[in-house]
């Protein structure tokens, strides 16, 4: 029996099985894909199993997340292991170089220009923080101790010593047993070589844990995608004039206008191919890119600007030069500007990186269907595991309302009124706040105007994170409000709702992507790569994943109780409900409204032996 480095006395339901499954896959030097609902304890299970095996076999563990905010739980788990086993476990929380830069002269520059300016200062010997780090002997014990609490503490301690915090974290990473980092450190082609060099080794001696792995392919594709507009080219030209440069960008503006004239006479968007571009844009970019970078740095230095259109243009030109067959070039026109976009259809080159580690552990609460993700990750021989929720089934009910639809051809005032009427009926039966998520802001606003509820809390398009936070604060002190948001947005995916402040979730419609050249090209590309599954992988399932993500917002622990309603006729279609049912048990009821009333009744709670937690304002 394996003695795991596990911080708790005993594992939760299904967590012990997950520990064993991961360890066995590592022992076989194989990767594993895990779909595990909220509450199982994925972070603890994956880290404990991976760390136990890594310690036995002289391997390093990388714990990667899509967002920095998700580092915290890994830090807590590793500190728990240190405390319980009194071990000198070494780990470091690494974030991007700019977030750890203590040089106020450059740390506010836009990301694409910051790295070039940083390299320039280091090479010229003008970064005092880097020099001070290099001149320092052994790492002060205080910094090691602070680093165990996360990158913010590491940053503060490094700043106290006046040394480069990024170099400090890199030095620690070389000796660390576990490195917590972002997806970009491994997936982004522009940062991966430097990152691997800093952690002292290749990926072949590393176990990588990919947290929230359902994001992996889209994030990888984003590193190969970019766009430029005639407006941005004009801003870049203004930057050149401001530093007295003789570089002329007018030909780029001319080329985009000529392409639009040729290809957009009757269409709003069109594909562009290598042969459509002049030779100076496809064969001599190296000279252009280098010159634009130098000019961008000069502009930033002289004007003290935080961002540069020149730097953006140089990065775009570099990607344009690669002419990857998996990247579509699309020209479009709108808002008084012409746009040339590089859209990655599937990130083949980046996905190949997943073959390099000793093993991968991919995990998410929405890694479904597992077979699709095995294909997308290029892991056809990997183990797959699907665990059921550890939360009591009696605490959640889910139904389909097939009386309405948001299908484009059916959208009308009468349909919006019918949806609003059904939402009001649901709310009258729910004792608490009701979150409603729509496929778009257009549908949200169309329905919202017919909802008779003055206290509703509504997400607006383009809302800042601070404004979203204010919405959540309002929700915290409410006990009977609608919360209106969109599927795929921050309210439906990126937010936890504590203390059961959401009593019901209604998912209105299906958030399918709008038809476009990019979507059509992506479906066609994946059709060829995945044997006719392009529409399923690029169109249908991504929409259903958003639905499943939203439906899980209300129940975040074993005491939460909530009702879920999938409101659209299409949820009765087997193509859709079969995917949803793999994550949420959907009940059939001739009148689900009465069933919801029953679910929230005092008698029902007593019969189940459960007690609804009181909300704390």
UniProtKB/TrEMBL annotation:
Regions that span the bilayer: none
InterPro entries: ATP-dep_Helicase_C (IPR006555), DinG/Rad3-like (IPR045028), Helic_SF1/SF2_ATP-bd_DinG/Rad3 (IPR014013), Helicase-like_DEXD_c2 (IPR006554), P-loop_NTPase (IPR027417), RAD3-like_helicase_DEAD (IPR010614), XPD_DNA_FeS (IPR042493)
Gene Ontology molecular functions: 4 iron, 4 sulfur cluster binding; 5'-3' DNA helicase activity; ATP binding; DNA binding; hydrolase activity, acting on acid anhydrides, in phosphorus-containing anhydrides; metal ion binding
Domain Helicase ATP-binding: 1-269
One annotated GO biological process: DNA repair
Pfam families, per database record: DEAD_2 (PF06733), Helicase_C_2 (PF13307)
Any coiled-coil regions, as ranges: none
Keyword terms of this UniProt record: 4Fe-4S, ATP-binding, DNA damage, DNA repair, DNA-binding, Helicase, Hydrolase, Iron, Iron-sulfur, Isomerase, Metal-binding, Nucleotide-binding
Protein name (Swiss-Prot/TrEMBL): DEAD_2 domain-containing protein
Organism: mine drainage metagenome
